[in-house]
Amino acid sequence: MFVLREELKGQLESIGQADILVGIPSYNNARTITRVVQAVGAGLAKYFPEARAVLVNSDGGSQDGTPQKMAEAGVDLQSILVAHRVNPVHKITTPYHGVPGKGSAFRLIFEIAKALGVKACSVVDADLRSITPEWMELLLRPILKEGYDYVAPYYLRHKYDGTITNNIVYPLTRALYGKRIRQPIGGEFGFTGDLASYFLTKDVWGTDVARYGIDIWMTTTVIARGSKICQAYLGAKIHDPKDPAADLSAMLAQVVGSLFALMEEYV
User: What is the pLDDT of residue 162?
Assistant: First the structure.
């Protein structure tokens, strides 16, 4: 059973209810998280000024001051807004517990979304360098205004970027499930609050889904569930490069392991 910390419970009680939640999983991303927070905040203010929004940083025990950078990050609304009424964006920075990995960070984000009863959620990586305020509209508007359940990203990427996606994940997803979702493990997604609650009902949080397997698990789960899915073109995705020796071997094993486990379940 997943239990929220008392301090976090108090923060959620003070907020009460929200319409939108944006989650940012992080681990040692102090160099980039300020820009991400500023872009998210500006996008929410510009495109959803009437909505009650919450920005959640689910951190994996960063040692470089990432949570502090998140807490200090502000948004210069005067440069983008003239006369909009803007509800303040609540910010929560909290460590996650459980298996170390991106999926565990997402699990906490899902729990907070459920507790606040949000209508729409999105998640974005903390190491993004190309994020703009428009990403918030592209990921959230299909959920709030157009009746979609899940928004997958569509990026302009170099042909040698996204090796696991291009050579394994996209071809298998298309062949097995008949869906042309070009970036099933893209990292940036939009989804309904109901889907966040549904994800929590699955007993997968001790598996590779709690690590890098989370993206392909989410995408495949919504396909198998028959959810209404669309793709949002986000332009170029530029982020901190990963060390192939340190990161990609583990990522490959966890993503492909999750992919094959999902094949056994749904195919």
Answer: 85
